[in-house]
Amino acid sequence: MSAAITLNSLVQDLKGIGEKKSQSLNKLGIFTLEDLLYFFPRRYEDRRTITSIYKIAAGMTVCIEAEVRSIRSPGSPSPSSAVLSDNTAEIRAIWFHNPYIAKILKPGYRAAFYGKAEYDEYNNAVQLVNPEFEVLYKDKKPELIGKIIPVYPATSSLKPKAVKKLVHECLANYLDLIKDFLPEYIKDKYKMRDIRDAIRILHAPANQDLWLRARNRLSFDDLFLLQAGLFMRRNLNKADNAPLMEAGENYKKFFDNLKFKPTGAQLRAINEILNDFKDASRSMNRLLQGDVGSGKTLVAAGALLAAVDSQFQAAFMAPTEILAQQHYLKLKSALEDLGVDIALLTGSLSMSERKEILKNLASGEIKILIGTHAVFSENVKFKNLGLVIIDEQHRFGVLQKQALIEKSGNLTPHVLVMTATPIPRTLTLSVFGDLDVSILDELPPGRKAIETISLTDSLDDKNKLYEIIKKYINNKNQVYWVCPLVEEGSDSKSELSSAVIRGAELTKIFSEFKIAVMHGRLSIEEKSKIMKDFADNKINILVSTVVIEVGVDVPNAALMVIEDAGQFGLAQLHQLRGRVGRGEAESMCILLTSQSTSPDGLERVKALTEISDGFELAEVDLKQRGPGEICGVRQHGVTEFRTANLVRDIKILNIARKEAKDLIERDPELKTEPLLRAEIMRRLGDELKLAETA
Ligand code: ADP
Ligand code: MG
Prior knowledge:
The chain is α/β, with parallel strands linked by helices.
């Protein structure tokens, strides 16, 4: 007599699952009945289209419905074969290692077949090789064809079909044990299906649209439960003491003077930030994610000015000196008329300059401090720091951010982190590290696609490259030329020299053009002089190391040449490419490869020539680097997602987060949603240590 079956019942306690099977299931990570119900297909075969035999060509994988004309099973080692016919043509099918076929398939039977067509030299004809088949009795609907067939992960001892049979039996018997825990109003609002429907659909989708919506529903579950759990967890922590800030005069003037209209996405992000500023019980902790060129800096400027308007200081940090400098110059000119004191702090200031800045910072005179990691150094003290913005976050460690937060006395400043790449770490942070996310999913109007091509180092290609460069410069546009990375172990000197050598070479080739070389060894004065000259169009070609990788914004530069492009990562290439396409001109990015470019490198170059969207590239990136690295959900020891994918589902994450936040704010203990509460405690209670709220 076995106890009643629940979702937590172990698979070996289910009818028909013995010791051996349950061991195989365990290997697949399936331990309980619930695991089995949520064990989704690895892929699907679309067998909806029945092909007429006369259309079959070698290489096609087809479904056919046909009559068996004749069948031969001479016995091993000869293959069995059959002649099949529909009213359009005949085709031969052969099966290796299946001498019993003639016992099942008889002449005159109607049957369904699914398999690959291959060319058979011996018979000079196309034939089906080892097709799956199913005899079609009179009133029986085919199981094998006419629909989408799920294919499950399997082990050596438990084949995909056996897994499928098991899962589908459990669906038939036990799916009702799953209770829909999602609040009704959320399901209504987003037109979501019942959880049982969604699960059933993922196991046997009728079409792609249904499948997608079902998957989104379950991904929402994953993300919503986690977010709700995190907000419950957050309620357990003591409240912050956050600066209360709002937009005022400076903010208004800045936007009034703006030469362009902010995009809808920019306005949305700014509003989300201003909203966070109104909550004195909790500091903002927000990630601003937007593809290269989406205009993150404007959002940052809005936030900085709201801080200044509210009599707080703000710090804006960039990953490189060049970028810090650029932010500084742009903001300074925008703030000129407003009388807001702004300063630049980098590692290469003189002692006295630095001292002066530190003094004015401590007194509160300087309102906005822009800098590199120098801003983190110990002796930098603020009077009343209200906001920290970190640009291109992946260059900064999380710990450093903590150090900065500790700089601001008894108030915890608001933090905005900006990034172009949905890299795993930012995503894990957004899920596990209490980050809210704003997305710029809209580029400023008038942006044209950046034509991206690859060229080799052949003489022909070189000439082509030089022609293109000339064309751009004669058209009054400017060119970036990025030099290769240097092999690991060699010092920065050789990187420097590769840029210097290339600069000299190009100077010879293009004697009529002005060429400058920039690398990490130059002083900040030298670098900023070059950047300023480049911005003023006094330099035609800027040869540089990757120091210009992120953030640099010179709209008149329209051609990007990247040497030895295969050496760079996808995200990096996308960042580099994003330096062009910022102005009126048609822009172009040329990726140079050579004999020595690795196959992986060639693949990345190819991806870049085909894909312009940063999100899509990030997915390719994750695929190339393997799922092991995806978002480190496992490594973090917090919950495993059933269907959610943090790169793909970032929009769902945001909705889930917003809904979870609203709900927990309204009903912190989920008294109105007992099923939801029970599900959160069941799935996450231990990991998030939620027991204290019980
Ligand atoms: P990123 O998100 O890569 O940091 P930036 O903030 O550098 O992008 O902006 C890219 C360029 O687009 C800049 O030249 C900026 O002045 C311009 N820009 C930003 N927002 C808008 C807008 N709403 N309309 C037109 N141009 C914009
Ligand atoms: Mg930027």
